[in-house]
Amino acid sequence: MKTVVCHAAKDLRIETTELPALGDQQLLVRVAFGGICGSDLHYYQDGGFGTVRIKQPMALGHEFSGTVDAVGTRVTAFKPGQRIAISPSRPCGHCRFCQLGQHNHCLNMRFYGSAMPFPHIQGGFSEKLVIDASQAHPIADHLSLSEAALAEPLSVGLHAIQRAGGVLGKQVLVTGCGSIGSLLIGGLRRAGAARIVAADLADLPLQCARNMGADETINLLTQTDGLDQYKADKGQFDAVFEASGSPAALRTALDVIAPRGVLVMVGLGGDISLPMNQIVAKEIDLRGTLRFHAEFATAVQFLNEGLVNGKPVITSVLPLDRAVEAFELALDKRQSLKVQISFNPEVLAS
Fold first, then answer.
1. Which structural domain range is residue 240 located in?
2. Domain total in the chain
């Protein structure tokens, strides 16, 4: 089968790889669509992020959908031809964090396309994939396989909302409206946020944010004072989701968040200094958010039932043989949000 493999920064290859044997509780899946994520781009552009570096060739990809080709002898819940979204989260279920229900912090996590452990965990950007049956989530007949591949980034947003501790009736700001930020906005709308303001530096993601449910959008490149009104009376937002990874966005968030507000860090950025006096004086809760696990099933449910419409996020779909082009396109934030790769042309229109 053909697989998209990253060897180092700017060294992405389409290689022929071997398919592992099918276990009795596993599924053989014909991959339909795979979305290029920000972490995939970090591996492609820089060879990693922070202290995480590619030390051996690694297949990329962790957000995808497909159809079941074959089932293991002990699998009863799925059948060949079934259309599914695939969770990349594979916790061990036995470590102390799994026992606490904190599966995203599993000490033995096997998350597709991750260079955090060594040997690396190979990703799912392949024509075919063998998965555990527990990773498969059936999708509705009306939902396209392309949309189903959005379940993973939507799950990231849903977990971030959970980390905020609830947004019902609250004033919320989202900074950074790429695919995760925009899908997060769809989740916030579903979770009952009273008002959602979205900020970015480009018009394309802001248009997507409006389509996903933002009440107000601000282009901070052309409206440099666009958030100034929200600094009044110590800040106006009950919760802020920083999804850009920008130090400037974080500092702006601290100016507009209300005392005792919750600031959730969603985007990946480098190490930065923080104005601790401001954080202390306003009693701000600064919270991280990492991946997801249980939220994946909820994300699939939202997509299946039309409670979140992810279509505005998908800007391009390219075939497997143009994978390098797809990555380059995904790097251009002026024209791209979610770029997907089609791995099997016969399901392109599904």
1. 157-288
2. 2
Same domain, 139 and 257: no
Give the per-residue pLDDT at 41: 95
Q: How far is Cα 211 from Cα 198, in angstroms, rounded to an integer?
A: 11
Shared-domain flag, residues 10 and 34? yes
Q: Of all helices (H) and strands (E), which one includes residue 101?
A: none
What CATH number is associated with residue 134? Answer: 3.90.180.10
Please tell me whether residues 134 and 229 are part of one structural domain.
no
Please give the model's pTM, rounded to 2 decimal places: 0.94
Closest CA to 258 of 275, 234, 278, 240: 234
What is 215-263 written as a DSSP string?
SEEEETTT-TTTTGGGGGGG--EEEEEE-S--HHHHHHHHHHEEEEEEE
Sequence-separated (6 or more) residues with CB below 8 Å from residue 72: 22, 23, 24, 25, 26, 27, 133
> Do 123 and 33 lie in a common domain?
yes
Collapse the DSSP code of 158 into the 3-class scheme (helix H, G, I; strand E, B; otherwise coil) and give the result.
helix
* Cα angle value 121/265/153 (rounded, 5°): 50
On whether the CB atoms of residues 265 and 286 are closer than 8 A, the answer is yes
Q: How much is the pLDDT for 58?
A: 97
Specify the pLDDT at position 349: 44
Q: Are 97 and 85 in contact (CB under 8 A)?
A: no
Torsion angle of C-alpha atoms 218, 221, 265, 159, degrees rounded to 10: 50
Pairing of strands 216-219, 26-35: unpaired
Residue 347: per-residue pLDDT: 55
pLDDT means over runs of 10, the chain (350 residues): 96 95 97 95 92 94 97 96 97 96 96 94 96 97 97 98 96 96 97 98 96 97 96 97 93 96 88 90 96 96 97 96 97 93 70
- Do 235 and 256 meet the contact criterion of CB atoms below 8 Å apart? yes
